[in-house]
TrEMBL record:
Residues 47-134 form the Dyp-type peroxidase N-terminal domain. Signal peptide: none annotated. Residues 138-307 form the Dyp-type peroxidase C-terminal domain. This is Peroxidase. Belongs to the DyP-type peroxidase family. Its cofactor is heme b. GO terms for molecular function: heme binding; metal ion binding; peroxidase activity. Pfam families: Dyp_perox_C, Dyp_perox_N. GO terms for cellular component: cytosol. The keyword Cell division does not apply. Keywords: Iron, Metal-binding, Oxidoreductase, Peroxidase. The keyword Oxidoreductase applies.
Length: 316
């Protein structure tokens, strides 16, 4: 039975590190060996620093997958869906690999990242090393609870992991979508709390859906449920705020067992509500209201294979 990478369905942590790499050409055979060793490295550190709750995820870029693992490709694995829209600025990041490290100790994250960089040296070039942190009681920098209705328990595994019956080779793997959101906090913080709530679609303190009389059809919460407040989430979110001197926002990871879930969600949030008879996606004015206060400067699509696949793929 395939074993998933533990970081995909792990509970929230206090700190997250994101290592984005480009692979050195011609290093694929040795890189397959090294990537299979990363989960072992993390497991050893997790045992040594047991109180830190250390986990990690190794993910391979959609455009690099065939070079690294030419024998088989996850069904539907594609580049990040950059949907033409006037409602959200986006810029794709050309990254071959993403390794996420999360724990409750920043020093343990540092140790893990340093050991990963040492392991992968000469096979990759580091593009970005990003740092996220838990803010207050699980809120993002807007002041609202982040993803208050995120799936939990067995439902999280059902949504995040590929089903064995659908793709036996990639069972327990997960499609991963990475975005870095920048918030316009200067203008956001000038809004009354009630206006912020109507944009988000949830109460600022409790994180529960607003009553129907106040719930806007294109509020963030409703847009994330494809226009129906009763719809369950399609994906598993792992978001962490980040803050630099002149830039603040959210490092967003979404995991899905179905490669179409994220594209469907993003298209809806951007105003592409439904396909017409010709198959075209008309754009609506009803885009996610939160997009007036943020933009995305990095986005990329990856696949996080199972531990079983990583181990099998590096064998001669």
């Amino acid at each position: 039975m395939a074993r998933e990478q533990l970081g995909i369905c792990a509970e929230a942590n206090l700190h997250a590190s994101y290592l984005l790499f480009n692979a050195v050409e011609g290093q694929e055979p040795i890189l397959r060996q090294k990537l299979a060793r990363v989960p072992l490295l993390l497991a050893r550190l997790a045992e040594h620093f047991s109180e830190a709750q250390l986990t990690g995820v190794v993910a391979v870029g959609a455009d690099y997958w065939d070079s690294l693992y030419p024998g088989a490709r996850p069904q539907g694995l594609q580049s990040f869906p950059l949907i033409a829209s006037d409602n959200l600025a986006q810029a794709e990041l050309w990254a071959d690999l993403l390794i996420q490290v999360r724990s409750d100790r920043l020093d343990v994250n540092y140790i893990a990242c340093q050991q990963i960089l040492q392991l992968l040296k000469n096979s990759v070039d580091l593009l970005e090393q990003l740092q996220g942190f838990r803010y207050l009681d699980g809120r993002d920098l807007t002041g609202f609870i982040d993803s208050p209705h995120n799936p939990k328990g067995s439902r999280k595994r059902q949504l995040a992991l590929v089903e064995p019956a659908l793709q036996p080779v990639f069972a327990a793997g997960s499609y991963m979508y990475f975005q870095r959101w920048h918030y316009d906090l200067l203008h956001w913080q000038q809004l009354e709390a009630s206006v912020q709530e109507e944009i988000m679609g949830i109460s600022k303190i409790e994180g529960v859906l607003l009553p129907p009389s106040r719930l806007q059809p294109n509020s963030h919460a409703v847009a994330c449920r494809l226009g129906n407040a009763e719809n369950p989430p399609l994906l598993v979110a792992q978001n962490m705020p980040f803050a630099e001197q002149n830039s603040q926002g959210l490092l967003s990871l979404h995991y899905a067992g179905d490669p179409g879930s994220f594209s469907q969600l993003l298209a809806y949030q951007l105003g592409n509500k439904a396909a017409n008879a010709g198959g075209e996606q008309p754009q609506s004015e009803q885009y996610d209201l939160l997009f007036d206060y943020c933009h995305v400067d990095l986005c990329a699509a990856f696949f996080a294979p199972s531990l079983s696949f990583l181990e099998m793929a590096c064998r001669p």
